[in-house]
Amino acid sequence: xxxxxxxxxxxxxxxxxxxxxxxxxxxxxxxxxxxxxxxxxxxxxxxxxxxxxxxxxxxxxxxxxxxxxxxxxxxxxxxxxxxxxxxxxxxxxxxxxxxxxxxxxxxxxxxxxxxxxxxxxxxxxxxxxxxxxxxxxxxxxxxxxxxxxxxxxxxxxxxxxxxxxxxxxxxxxxxxxxxxxxxxxxxxxxxxxxxxxxxxxxxxxxxxxxxxxxxxxxxxxxxxxxxxxxxxxxxxxxxxxxxxxxxxxxxxxxxxxxxxxxxxxxxxxxxxxxxxxxxxxxxxxxxxxxxxxxxxxxxxxxxxxxxxxxxxxxxxxxxxxxxxxxxxxxxxxxxxxxxxxxxxxxxxxxxxxxxxxxxxxxxxxxxxxxxxxxxxxxxxxxxxxxxxxxxxxxxxxxxxxxxxxxxxxxxxxxxxxxxxxxxxxxxxxxxxxxxxxxxxxxxxxxxxxxxxxxxxxxxxxxxxxxxxxxxxxxxxxxxxxxxxxxxxxxxxxxxxxxxxxxxxxxxxxxxxxxxxxxxxxxxxxxxxxxxxxxxxxxxxxxxxx
Length: 545
Description:
By secondary structure, this protein is α/β, with parallel strands linked by helices. Helix content is 30%, strand content 25%. The protein has helices spanning 44-50, 67-73, 92-97, 110-125, 128-136, 161-172, 186-192, 200-203, 226-231, 249-258, 297-315, 331-354, 374-385, 398-405, 484-494, 525-532, and strands spanning 16-20, 34-38, 56-59, 79-82, 101-104, 153-157, 176-180, 195-196, 209-212, 236-240, 261-266, 286-288, 360-367, 408-414, 422-433, 439-451, 454-460, 463-467, 472-479, 499-506, 512-519, 539-544. Helix 1 (44-50) packs parallel to helix 2 (67-73), helix 4 (110-125) packs across helix 6 (161-172) and helix 12 runs parallel beside helix 13. 41% of the residues are buried.
């Protein structure tokens, strides 16, 4: 099956048919070149019977788009649209295998989710939940003293689409706003008028209120725990209207019981719906809503109209918005570039950890590639953006997401590679003019090649290496003197961390050297700092590929 590629939309010569089988507000159902049939809550048997006559299918969460339904659709079906954010009801792997494009409309609820976060902040500041409960119990308590928002500082973790709206609304309430998001370039902070915190630990002690707006990933799960909450100012307020688990539930309740937090608001739980004995339900000064971020009339109207528009655009060839999966590339391209696509994704993931928040990315192809290497650029972007955007990047939407993030992409081609048959070199740049006008720009460069179909790292900064990019890789620099590797190896041994592979490189004898170790296990922040504290180590970074 071939991938759907963006083209200039054109009115189909013969009408394309789209079935909308779940309850929603699809907006206008009359579009030139299309026939839209809307029947909310259509029985599954009816969907199975009628679907072979349609080019597109639009659902909400009710209809299970599983193997049975996809097989019943037959070859005519090309696009599946899911109104809203989640796609749990769709078998993405099987849809991709069949070459079906899956779309959603995650932006539809951005304003609603942001406004709910602000609502929780204001409710916690004025003790709304507490006062409501007491008044219903017959207690007229007018002694409670709330907090004003004006001139206080709001901290935002995650300055994506929703976080940006929260920042705008907060500034309208005369709040000072500071944010932590290592994946967003400085230009966006400047455009929004938001102060940048370089690290989470830098953010927390300077804010009165904290709200989180990040995707739930391995990196963000539990990122706000007991240690982080303790760094907040006394009488702070914490809000989570993003994803359950970003803030550790037990730690949040403990901070409320201890009085360190003035209050909190949550719209999300790790497990939903919560059990009757869930610890949140008896926590003091905690406002709770039932995952209502998207539940406004306006958001629900937008989601129907937007998913219809995206499905129709995709059927005309424009797949730049809302793509959740990437239908398989044709077999010939995969055969010729499969190893390089894998390499590109790995190089992107490594650079995302070495230098997040870049504003420029440059991909250089050296040597003669077996096919047009343009898809490798997209694979690099998928790797670089993974885990850092509101929308999951893939081979279809990665370029659009990069543009939205303000990431400029440049491509260079060199006819020959001095050391390998082909080599892919990726450089990212971050930073810019400082307050005194001087340039303060940081760069990171990685490169790789493919042996057979197996990716290999060939370059880190200006150093030549040869290492299989997998698992955990410790990248350390030192002065080229005996004993550095031995000291580091001994330290890893005391922790029971096994070294699976090693590569060494140096610019010149006695100068700066760089070595990389492939580890079987990851390292804690404390362990990584202990490595950096070794007198033979100049710098050390851990990346996970």
